[in-house]
Specification:
2 domains, alpha/beta, about 250 residues, single chain
Amino acid sequence: MTIRGGQPELLRGIIFDLFGTLIVPDRFEETNIAHLLEWAAVRGLPVSPDATQVVEEASTWMWQETRLTGRQVLRREALARAADQLGWRADEALLTEATRVFFTPEVGTVRAYPDAVTSLEALGQMGLRLGLISIASDHGLVEQVLHRTGLAPYLDPVVSSAAFGRVKPDPGIFRFVLERWGSPPEQCVMVGDTLDADIEGAQALGMRAILVTMDPNPNNARVADRIRPDATAATLEQAVQIIRTWTGHPEPGA
């Protein structure tokens, strides 16, 4: 655990990332695609030998376009692209169903970090507001994951790039939460696992930022020489301890 910087006079809110921060970042793409194509076959939709590759390429296109433009390209847009190549007559109803089906395996097996709930409870008991900003291609996925893991009651607002339209580190997505709370950035902290999206994005507005390293994000290596978090935590419990230090709140029972 490392901490940089002096002690702020007041903290009012903590914004969390989701995947890799509150939720274990398992890989579900292969399982999700397989489930989608099984559903398509049962539905009588054509499933060619290269169908898996077609859906994979549509996913790659989705994230490439998102990174290039800063606009969150939606999973349903990727599925529409794949459906066109596979010869599916994809109206809005089918795309809605296909999106739900695609994420079913992920929603069914996703896991929160063991100390996620207790950490959110501890911060709430300190009188801090808690919110979430997640880069995700479908807002419904975020909501379902939060409900399945029991995290939903602790977080308000819940903001996804799918619903907001832009991805971190776009300053607008951070400002949206701060304005909902009526809190200045210097009184809020971002907790996330990604240096450029979470840490740099928050610091650019004047927020403090804690990098969590339970499952180190491999993309951080390319920017680690220029982005420095205000603190680093190996667990969510450590992140809570850092916030206690910054606010002067004593440990329970102290």
